[in-house]
Structure prediction request, 262 residues.
Amino acid sequence: MRFEFADRGNLKVRAETVACTRPVTPLRLLFASDLHLFRSRHSPLIDQILSAASDSRPDVILLGGDLVDRAAALPALASLVRQLRQKAPVGAIAGNHDVWIGVSKVRRAVEQGGGLWLGDQSFFLPSVESPSLRIDGRLNMDLQASIPRILCAHHPAIFPQAHRAGYRIILAGHLHGGQWVWAELGGRLFPGAWLNRWNGLRFEKPGATLLVSRGVSDTIPLRWNCPREVLLCTIGTDDSPKSDTVTEIEQIAQYRDEGTQK
Prediction:
């Protein structure tokens, strides 16, 4: 057990693997949620995120909301996205803290850094012959999708809806693991799981997997036995080689609101 104050400890890269019929060659997604940037200048937290991205060599980087706590940190967010973009394509969504700052402002910072805002768009990960996965930034009831879909979400409570909508993988954060963890029982982290059933690490339903990140940082920067982390999700098999085919976002598709939302 360890007490952690602010961002002085190490940022953990938590590895997860999800089996999927496509792609044949595994893809690596780095999911960083709950950054809670508040400084206008470069901070050690940004260095930790960049180091995690360099070490994990992802094919795609996803930012899962609660990116800033203060408007003054928007330039730092744009700079972070710009540097991450040199390592892999970057997609981002908003969290509740970003709503308080202003989603349009946060989106502008992400796009200024060269990232793709997934709030109303999706993108496809290409394989050698055709797109092999689709990443959405909001729930899309496209039950006829011909390829596996990933939902980049903020709150894990969306899991039952996403499962019904046919998503194979759901990535979420928001809960920070409760920040204080006394025990892990049945895949849930306590005492936080008494307040929210999704306060855990990994949840399964038939044909769907929810991975919940404990987050990169916190508004109230105190933790006990709850490491700060990013998720490195390998989609495929453990013994297959890393894909070298995904180097760029091949296609950006606008959502069609009519007929896709319920």
